[in-house]
Write a structure and sequence with these properties.
This protein is mostly helical. The protein has 14 helices and five strands. A three-stranded mixed β-sheet has the order 3-5-4, sandwiched between helices.
Length: 428
């Protein structure tokens, strides 16, 4: 009887773990998400439409009322156009195998295309769906699929006017604008500061031409100060747009892979449940000793367990998973390549950020007392929540090398008339 009492909770625990296991699209990494499709739909409904903006503003209000850049601002339009360009490459991730020869036909001097992924982007099935489908098949009933939807575009966008912050983060889950990206203007300023001397000279010459026209004809044909032509702004170069696309692709990858649900599941369900279970076991084992000293000692042990579990839960929430960040980098490289950008530029981009920001530690991000902010962990790019950039750069380099290696192998196999054997090299 004693062994049965021990076996039942352990068995139920592992059944729940196995039923919640799933493989991440593109990379195939196994993960746990202890949320049903109905719970995910409820989360998405709470953030759909304008509710996403309000939830983000609640998060940002912890640092004071945020100042937003309006949609008619040229910076907002630039970011939005680049974001939509990245979004247009998401459907390609679902059908990479249908155009499997395009990545082999790219010339050596052109930006590379990735080989078809072993795990294409599909609505996320669960092991619980398979169990339910098997049970209903035994009962002679037809099971309806409850696969999770892809939290696809169009994504919401907010740009915070804060020049001293070069950060960005993704927030939310679900369609209909329930997920999106927040960018601080400081990051845009950093990108635009990299303009070449020729671009700066061209920008300075524009007001001079207008001034000559005004001096010649006077105020008769003067342009109103409200005319947008009179207010010159820098035209982003191709390299500046590519840097912006690298940032956006990384955040889009977080949203496409539903990393926020994984963080919510592990930080709010899995970690507290495991800690609570082990704390109860420890209290049970220590009870014969603590009962000799009275109920006060037993209560003190319980409070100590609660404090320790709270700190461990905070640590799990604050320190972003290294595997998620590496995964987002690798998937963002695919998004960049399919959107017409050179994925190899991402290596130089992140190396530049590594040299400019130094060491990276774990800290809380997007903290807020709002209940809307408690269920997610914002993935800041240039903040202190990301793992060591050097590790991510090396894994990104390995991924790009894998693209080239698989291309060479596939071309060699096609020349000899045999099916390509893809080398085993990728994410662990």
């Amino acid at each position: 009887m004693f062994h049965m009492l021990l076996f039942v909770p352990v068995a139920l625990f592992w059944v729940a773990i196995l039923a919640s296991a799933e493989q991440t699209p593109i990379t195939g990494r196994w993960r746990l998400i202890l949320l049903s499709p109905e719970e995910e739909d409820d989360i998405a409904a709470q953030l759909a439409g304008p509710k996403w903006t309000q939830a983000v503003l609640n998060v940002l209000s912890s640092e004071g009322p945020p100042k937003l850049i309006p949609e008619n601002d040229w910076r907002y339009q630039w970011v939005r156009e680049t974001l939509r360009r990245i979004e247009n490459s998401i459907p390609i991730l679902q059908h990479e195998h249908e155009s499997s020869s395009e990545w082999l036909e790219t010339a050596s001097g052109h930006p590379p295309l990735p080989p078809p992924a072993d795990y294409p982007l599909r609505p996320r099935p669960r092991a619980s769906d398979r169990v339910r489908r098997f049970s209903e098949t035994l009962c002679g009933r037809r099971s309806s699929s409850s696969a999770h939807v892809i939290a696809g575009p169009p994504y919401s966008l907010l740009i915070v006017d804060k020049p001293d912050a070069a950060n960005a983060f993704s927030y939310g889950f679900g369609p209909d604008g329930a997920s999106g990206i927040v960018i601080y203007s400081g990051f845009l300023d950093d990108i635009l500061a990299k303009s070449s001397d020729d671009d700066a000279a061209n920008l300075q010459r524009q007001p001079e031409a207008f001034s000559w026209w005004t001096q010649l004809f006077g105020s008769l044909f003067s342009v109103s100060a409200s005319n947008p032509v009179a207010h010159s702004h820098p035209t982003p170069t191709k390299d500046q747009t590519a840097d912006l696309a690298i940032l956006l692709a990384h955040e889009v990858a977080h949203l496409v892979l539903s990393h926020h649900l994984e963080t919510l599941s592990s930080g709010a369900i899995i970690v507290p449940a495991v800690i609570s279970m082990f704390a109860d076991i420890a209290r049970t084992l220590l009870f014969p000793i603590t009962m000799l000293f009275g109920p006060f000692v037993n209560d003190a042990v319980a409070q100590l367990g609660k404090a320790g579990s709270g700190e461990l839960t905070k640590l799990g929430e604050y320190c972003t998973s290294v595997s998620q960040e590496i995964e987002a980098d690798i998937v963002s490289a695919r998004l960049l390549a399919h959107a017409g950008f050179d994925a190899r530029q991402a290596v130089a981009f992140w190396e530049g950020r590594q040299h400019s920001m130094g060491a990276v530690d774990c800290s809380s991000v997007a903290r807020s007392d709002s209940p809307d902010a408690g269920w997610t962990l914002a993935h800041r790019i240039m903040g202190a929540s990301h793992p060591v950039i050097g590790v991510r750069v090396e894994r990104l380099k390995d991924e790009l090398v894998r693209w080239e290696l698989e291309k060479r192998v596939a071309l060699k196999q096609r020349q000899v008339g045999r099916p390509a054997e893809r080398p085993i090299m990728g994410l662990v």
